[in-house]
Specification:
The complex is a heterodimer of chains A (315) and B (214). Chain A is of the alpha/beta class and 315 residues long. Chain A has 14 helices and eight strands. In chain A, helix 2 packs across helix 14, helix 5 runs parallel beside helix 6 and helix 6 crosses helix 7. The chains are: A alpha/beta (315), B mainly alpha (214).
């Protein structure tokens, strides 16, 4: 355990908590499920974890954890009544706390990019080992702002074509948002034009981001190398067969060939009846059925992220 | 996408150049599963046509990297900086490999023997094929028992008994017939006629013995 804690300290530079952000292109892919399960696995490994619910479309991390909604929520932080540490609510699970999302849907507030920047800075001051953020579906600018700055960027997809399609759209948005900041504006406009032509199959040559960067001025040439150093981690959720699980490798290959983006396939999670059974009882599956095969899969995912050397068969 | 300038085979299979051989195979199988058939992972990204082109490249890459010898030549040229990926086509590697390892199989040593017109005529006219005559043909063609045994994969003990038509040294007649066919083929004779005739004589000689033993 000491070794684990040691590697976690190494993991986050600067000494604050490590920030993991879970996103997905499509709603219902299992972001909240993955976030809460990762959090519980991390607490089982001895770390303290805070989950932050940023799903503006209906915050329900508390339900996934089997908790009552907290009296204080992000609303209090948005309106400046409390600081972030003041709205962290403990749960009845050891080492696990959460920040209640916006569930007063009668007065919606869009989380702005400004909000996100402020939030990202404050998240890193929280006193714990890991902060896990559960984003809403889709690639809004605010989502991407937080996603880009995360220590671990976790992207959840299911094996259905609808989900896969939206995952690619999310990745495109992610790439473009990183390019926009580093590129000259006119070069970026030109890239968007080329992309549009390509999408409608009017572009003459085959398109490649890396090729485009090489041929056009106004970009940083090593952009994709830099992106791939802190890769997006892909999780395929609700796999019903080995073929489904292999999709992760296929998507990784497609990303590398089409986007020139190094993607890391974090792992496949089985479709597990234990999940809906425990959701029905408003319990977290890893608490209700701690020995279901999924628990092992989440453990492997966590180990892959915090101590990959321990997964190697030969040291 | 893999456009204009050719990528090297390692990039096509997305492997480090140090990948061990079994990882090359895994990568190939995954790539093949990805770009063939209706894999949902290429949906909205690659058209059928593009996927087929990629598949061709993948097959080509595996034809080189999946073969240790060809991979060695490829590595030497690519990593040694002797050539650019686009100059290293599948054909050029194959040609280089042929130059390095010429495919000249060791020539079979032909059996040298003096052709004797009279004996040749005797062979072609022969109707009664017994063990003794088979032995004569073998000796005429200068083939030792050892060599015959090595080529026909029949133990020389059986070959000896076959030529002596000694049933005590031979297995059941059905196997004997098989041996005779092998021997006849090896001696360049018509195996069916030889076997039929040999078995007829063989039975005629052994059956009285059987009858007596009964």
């Amino acid at each position: 355990m000491e070794k684990l804690v040691h590697s976690a300290k190494k993991h986050n530079k600067g000494g604050g908590p490590s920030l993991w952000v879970t996103a997905s292109g499509k709603g219902g892919a299992g972001k909240t499920f993955v976030t809460s399960s990762l959090a519980i696995t991390l607490t089982k490994l001895g770390y303290s974890v805070i989950i932050v619910d940023l799903d503006a479309a209906g915050a329900n991390v508390h339900t996934a954890l089997g908790q009552n909604p907290a009296p204080v929520s992000l609303r209090n932080w948005l309106e400046g009544q409390k600081d972030l540490a003041g709205i962290v609510t403990p749960t009845n699970l050891p080492r696990l706390s959460f920040v209640q999302g916006l569930w007063d849907s009668w007065c919606p507030i869009e989380l702005s990019v400004e909000n996100m920047r402020k939030l990202a800075a404050e998240l890193r001051t929280l006193r714990c080992d890991f902060v896990l953020v559960d984003l809403g579906p889709g690639a809004t600018e605010a989502h991407l702002e937080l996603f880009r700055g995360a220590d671990e960027k976790i992207l959840v997809s299911t094996p259905e074509p609808t989900s896969i399609e939206k995952t690619y759209r999310f990745l495109e948005a992610y790439i473009c948002s990183t390019l926009r900041d580093s590129a000259r504006p006119e070069a970026f406009e030109d890239l968007l034009k080329t992309l549009r032509e390509h999408r409608h199959r009017r572009h003459k040559k085959p398109f490649s981001f890396r090729g485009h960067l090489r041929e056009h001025e106004g970009f940083q040439i090593d952009h994709f190398e830099a992106l791939s150093r802190s890769p997006v981690r892909l999780v395929i959720n609700a796999c019903r067969s080995q073929v489904n699980a292999e999709l992760g490798y296929s998507m990784k290959s497609v990303c590398s060939k089409y986007y020139d983006l190094g993607l890391d396939f974090l792992g496949a999670l089985d479709f597990d009846n234990a999940v809906w059974q425990s959701v029905k009882n408003k319990e977290q599956v890893l608490i209700a059925q701690p020995f279901t095969p999924l628990a092992g899969q989440f453990l492997a995912v966590c180990k892959h992220l915090i101590a990959p050397e321990e997964l190697r068969a030969v040291g | 996408m893999l456009e204009q300038g050719r990528y090297n085979y390692y990039e096509i299979l997305e492997l480090p150049t140090t990948a061990p051989q079994h990882e090359v195979t895994t990568a190939y199988e995954r790539a093949k599963a990805t770009y063939s058939g209706e894999n949902p992972a290429i949906y909205t990204i690659f058209s059928d046509h593009e996927a087929r082109e990629l598949l061709t490249l993948i097959e080509e890459a595996y034809a080189i990297l999946g073969n240790k010898t060809l991979r060695g030549i490829y590595d030497q040229r690519l990593l040694g900086g002797q050539a650019q990926p686009k100059e290293l086509s599948y054909q050029s590697i194959l040609t280089a490999s042929r130059a390095l390892f010429p495919e000249n199989k060791p020539e079979e040593k032909k059996n040298e023997y003096k052709i004797d017109e009279i004996f040749e005529k005797k062979i072609s006219d022969c109707k009664e094929w017994d063990g003794e005559f088979l032995k004569k043909v073998r000796e005429y063609k200068c083939i030792g028992l050892d060599r015959m045994s090595e080529k026909t994969k029949i133990n020389s003990y059986y070959l000896n008994a076959l030529e002596g038509m000694d049933p005590s040294g031979l297995p059941a007649p059905v196997f004997v017939r098989g041996y005779v066919i092998q021997v006849a083929k090896f001696l360049g004779l018509n195996d069916k006629t030889v076997a039929d005739s040999y078995m007829k004589i063989f039975r005629a000689r052994t059956e009285p013995q059987h009858a007596r033993s009964k």
